[in-house]
């Protein structure tokens, strides 16, 4: 049933995909548009966002691209101002941007730690700080993409810590912004197959699939459907929550 986001204006950060195939931000932008939202696809590599916009236009949806480095407050403010200018307001901020870091505690450098914290955590705070004043009076939904790396033992020191920080940020923002009618939630994807993890190859892909109790492969569409729900009025009484989309992996000891 299309139209669940009809009339809404949405920003998706990291709305492009880093490689061939479908990333979480790209799939979310496409589903948002299919559900009737007008979408500002934001990416530091703007040609990636333009790819997404092209696909949305082919389907008859409404979207446009914007170049921003979301670790910078000024870029976040410009991104929000552009959404308001192009579409007349802002209802949904989908904080999808994230980079990986695989270094363990003895290998992670200070520079890597700082960069991951800036991209995966600080950017979400800066984007929310810019968006909230423009949402006031319209309600609104902010969704931040975390990871199951935040919820279980993990080798990826900076990534796990940043993604756990995202969940903490969501809880405090939900408390602070509830009185303004703004809902704030997180999605914790499991091992979905996206260009971000393509380096793992066919063997890694098969291992990821087999690890889940469901035994099926998760894709960016699975993450995007959770994003549609959280952005929609169907989630009007849901805030401060983390929806885990992982085929059941976190239930296991695998
Ligand atoms: N694939 C998985 O298995 C998995 C699992 C858990 C969580 N996630 C999370 O999903 C999100 C990634 O989703 P994706 O599939 O869209 O990734 P992606 O890398 O394909 O796309 C993200 C886009 O963000 C852009 N970007 C990166 N840093 C930026 C910055 N500082 N400012 C502006 N744009 C920037 C990139 O250019 C890229 O086009 C991340 O938050 C990631 O941690 C993925």
Shape, principal axes of CA atoms:
globular
* Architecture per CATH nomenclature, i.e. the level-2 architecture: 3-Layer(aba) Sandwich
CATH homologous superfamily label = NAD(P)-binding Rossmann-like Domain
How many helices does DSSP assign? 7
| Widest beta sheet: strand line-up | 3-2-1-4-5-6-7
The computed structural class is alpha/beta
Overall residue-averaged pLDDT value: 96
Which small molecules are bound? Answer: nicotinamide-adenine-dinucleotide
Radius of gyration: 17 Å
State the order of secondary-structure elements, H for helix, E for strand: EHEHEHEHEHEHHE
Describe the sheet with the most strands: 7 strands, parallel
DSSP, total strands: 7
Strand content: 15-25%
What does this molecule look like?
The protein is an alpha/beta fold and 254 residues long. It has a single domain (9-190, 221-245), classed as 3-Layer(aba) Sandwich (Rossmann fold), CATH 3.40.50. It is 43% helix and 15% strand. The protein is built from seven helices and seven strands, in the order E-H-E-H-E-H-E-H-E-H-E-H-H-E. Strands 3-2-1-4-5-6-7 form a seven-stranded parallel beta sheet, with helices on both faces. The mean pLDDT is 96. It binds nicotinamide-adenine-dinucleotide.
Which helices and strands appear, and what pairs or packs with what?
Elements: E1 9-13, H1 24-34, E2 38-43, H2 46-58, E3 62-67, H3 73-87, E4 92-95, H4 110-135, E5 140-145, H5 157-177, E6 182-189, H6 201-211, H7 220-231, E7 242-245
Helix pairs in contact: 1-2, 1-7, 3-4, 4-5
Bound molecules: nicotinamide-adenine-dinucleotide.
Residues 14, 16-18, 23-25, 43-45, 48, 68-71, 96-99, 119, 123, 145, 147, 189, 191-192, 194-197, 220 line the site of nicotinamide-adenine-dinucleotide.
């Amino acid at each position: 049933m299309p139209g669940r986001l009809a009339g809404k204006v949405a920003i998706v950060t990291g709305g492009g995909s880093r490689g061939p195939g479908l990333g979480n931000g790209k799939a979310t932008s496409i589903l948002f548009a299919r559900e009737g939202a007008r979408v500002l696809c934001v990416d530091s590599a703007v040609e990636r966002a333009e790819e997404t916009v092209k696909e949305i236009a082919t389907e008859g949806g409404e979207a446009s691209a914007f170049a921003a480095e979301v670790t910078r407050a000024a870029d976040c403010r410009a991104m929000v101002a552009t959404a308001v200018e192009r579409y007349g307001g802002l209802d949904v901020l989908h904080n999808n941007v994230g980079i990986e870091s695989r270094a363990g505690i003895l290998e992670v450098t200070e520079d890597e730690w700082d960069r991951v914290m800036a991209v995966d955590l600080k950017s979400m705070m800066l984007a929310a700080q810019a968006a909230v004043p423009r949402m006031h009076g319209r309600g609104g939904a902010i969704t931040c993409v975390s990871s199951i790396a935040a919820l279980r033992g993990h080798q990826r020191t900076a990534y796990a810590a940043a993604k756990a920080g995202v969940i903490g940020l969501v809880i405090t923002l939900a408390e602070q912004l509830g009185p303004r009618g703004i809902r704030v939630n997180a999605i914790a994807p499991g091992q979905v197959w996206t260009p971000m993890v393509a380096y793992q190859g066919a063997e890694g892909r098969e291992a990821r699939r087999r690890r889940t109790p469901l035994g099926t492969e998760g894709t960016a569409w699975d993450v995007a459907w959770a994003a549609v729900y959280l952005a929609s009025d169907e989630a009007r009484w849901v805030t401060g929550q983390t929806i885990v989309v992982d085929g059941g992996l976190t239930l296991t000891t695998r």
